[in-house]
């Protein structure tokens, strides 16, 4: 829970909103600065109650490497899924996997779940209420141990290093 | 001159690849066997399809207007943030409604077990969270 602090509860979000607004209208005129600034103050004021405190990024270099790796995996994932869809023999082996989470912060779990949904053959389906298990549906998995190990090494450990450690 | 011809070819390639991926993703929606498998099509193939088209658009307008194009990056960013969230919500809804899945699916999640009437429901959360808030508890807080 973020404490209300004067009229700029989340300064970073305000800045981001202003920049995105100026990029969207593609103009740097005074009027758009005013309008964007108004939105950048108003939106956080109305929504700060919904925001969690976000963990500090401890190692930005690793974050960049993580993003590049995820982008590469998305391309690979697309070719795999396209092949599974087009393959007339349909040899896919769907699988529900229960993934024991190592991460604790809600924000990082969200990042991990999004990554899992975007990358090879897996969709995150449910986060159990205790926040310790993530249910994953895999389109084509040989066995769950291997899949869990792969996700842990490739995504969860870097995320933990970047944010929690 | 040849530069523009090559560029045109590259842009066309991106557009065609994008269209093909988007089509394959939609085909998967119609073609795969059960709800949970069908979810995979739109989350992956479609993001890639839109991504390719956006790269093509960036190349074209970057050269034609001769200024850097940033809106496409914003579109891609919004897409990458929203696609996994909507997929997650759809999957959660599917589990909640206990939609059927094909028999060869391995793994039997608790969410899909049949609940029998009169038995305790599927445990979600810790015992403290599960306990209903009674009147005494509420009044003791004040």
Key features?
heterodimer; A: 165 residues; mainly alpha; three-stranded antiparallel β-sheet; 5 helices; 3 strands; 57% helix; 11% strand; globular; B: 142 residues; Helix Hairpins; 6 helices; disordered C terminus; PhaG_MnhG_YufB (chain B); Multicomponent K+:H+ antiporter subunit G (chain B); transmembrane helix (chain B); membrane (chain B); transmembrane (chain B)
Write the layout of secondary structure elements.
The complex is a heterodimer of chains A (165) and B (142).
Chain A: H1 11-25, H2 30-47, H3 60-86, E1 95-100, H4 106-118, E2 122-127, E3 133-138, H5 144-164
Antiparallel strand pairs in A: 1-3, 2-3
Helix pairs in contact in A: 1-2, 3-5, 4-5
Chain B: H1 2-31, H2 35-38, H3 40-64, H4 71-96, H5 127-130, H6 135-141
Biased composition (Basic and acidic residues) (chain B): 126-142
Transmembrane segments (chain B): 6-24, 45-63, 69-91
Protein name (chain B): Multicomponent K+:H+ antiporter subunit G
Structure overview:
The complex is a heterodimer of chains A (165) and B (142). Chain A is mainly α. Chain A has two domains: 11-50, no CATH class; 60-164, no CATH class. Chain A is 57% helix and 11% strand. Chain A has five helices and three strands, in the order H-H-H-E-H-E-E-H. Chain A has helices spanning 11-25, 30-47, 60-86, 106-118, 144-164; strands at residues 95-100, 122-127, 133-138. A three-stranded antiparallel beta sheet of chain A has the order 1-3-2. The radius of gyration of chain A is 20 Å and the shape is globular. In chain A, 29% of the residues are buried. Chain B is an all-alpha fold. Chain B has a single domain, classed as Orthogonal Bundle (Helix Hairpins), CATH 1.10.287. Chain B contains six helices and no strands. Chain B has helices spanning 2-31, 35-38, 40-64, 71-96, 127-130, 135-141. In chain B, helix 1 (2-31) packs antiparallel against helix 3 (40-64) and helix 3 (40-64) runs antiparallel to helix 4 (71-96). The interface between A and B is large, with 38 and 47 residues.
């Amino acid at each position: 829970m973020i404490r209300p602090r004067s009229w700029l509860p989340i300064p970073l979000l305000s800045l981001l909103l202003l920049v995105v607004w100026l990029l969207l209208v593609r103009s740097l005129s005074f009027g758009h600065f005013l309008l964007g600034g108004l939105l950048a103050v108003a939106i956080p004021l109305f929504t700060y109650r919904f925001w969690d405190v976000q963990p500090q990024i401890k190692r930005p270099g690793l974050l960049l490497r993580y993003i590049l790796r995820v982008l590469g995996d998305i391309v690979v994932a697309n070719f795999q899924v396209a092949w599974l869809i087009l393959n007339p023999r349909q040899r896919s082996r769907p699988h529900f996997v229960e993934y024991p989470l190592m991460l604790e912060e809600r924000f990082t779990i969200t990042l991990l779940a999004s990554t899992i949904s975007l990358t090879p053959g897996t969709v995150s389906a449910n986060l159990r209420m205790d926040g310790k298990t993530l249910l994953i549906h895999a389109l084509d998995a040989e066995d769950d141990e291997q899949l869990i190990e792969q996700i842990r090494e490739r995504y969860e450990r870097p995320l933990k290093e970047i944010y929690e450690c | 001159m040849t530069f523009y011809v090559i560029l045109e070819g590259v842009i066309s390639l991106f557009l065609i690849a994008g269209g093909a991926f988007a089509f394959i993703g939609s085909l998967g929606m119609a073609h795969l066997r059960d709800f949970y498998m069908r979810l995979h099509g739109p989350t992956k193939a479609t993001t890639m399809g839109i991504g390719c088209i956006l790269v093509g658009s960036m190349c074209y307008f970057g050269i034609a207007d001769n200024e850097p194009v940033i809106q496409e990056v914003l579109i891609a960013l919004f897409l990458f943030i929203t696609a996994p969230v909507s997929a997650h919500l759809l999957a959660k809804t599917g589990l909640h409604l206990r939609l059927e899945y094909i028999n060869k699916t391995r793994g039997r999640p608790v969410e899909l077990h049949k609940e029998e009437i009169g038995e305790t429901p599927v445990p979600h959360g810790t015992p403290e969270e599960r306990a209903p808030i009674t009147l005494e508890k509420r009044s003791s807080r004040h």
